[in-house]
């Protein structure tokens, strides 16, 4: 039996799966343990308030989430348009290599083009995560001249 999946906007009942995927991603890519309760609350906050981020999920069989991406926005005065940042990108290990990210990415790109005021799509990826970088390059994304700097403030 062939499984089918489709990409849709996340709903509150997806929060547990999304939070679990975020925990796995942080450990898999950075060996960084995250607080499960904080991650779950953060996911729920985004699902309830699209200004914080919009999750898209790929589901299999109606309610089994097998992949995800979160879109956050950044205004560019240089471009007089929005950049959509792809965050919390994760595809369940058993679903990798089956075009799941491609489907998620194409969905987000269609939504961005439909919005009409999106200058581009961006994401950040760990320097050592060569497999993910190859996947993103196959989607037409290019390495930029920018580096990400951060100062954690401990507020959350």
Largest sheet: 5 strands, mixed
Low-pLDDT stretches are none
Strand content: 25-35%
Ends apart, CA distance between termini:
45 Å
Q: How is the secondary structure organized here?
A:
Elements: E1 5-9, H1 15-30, H2 36-48, E2 54-60, E3 64-76, E4 81-91, H3 100-115, E5 118-123, H4 130-138
Parallel strand pairs: 4-5
Antiparallel strand pairs: 1-2, 2-3, 3-4
Helix pairs in contact: 1-2
Give a brief rundown of this model.
By secondary structure, the protein is α+β, with helices and mostly antiparallel strands. The protein has 4 helices and 5 strands; from the N terminus they run βααβββαβα.
What does this structure look like?
The chain is α+β, with helices and mostly antiparallel strands and 156 residues long. 35% of the residues lie in helices and 27% in strands. It has helices at residues 15-30, 36-48, 100-115, 130-138; strands at 5-9, 54-60, 64-76, 81-91, 118-123. It has a five-stranded mixed beta sheet. Helix 3 links the parallel strand 4 and strand 5 (118-123). The mean pLDDT is 92.
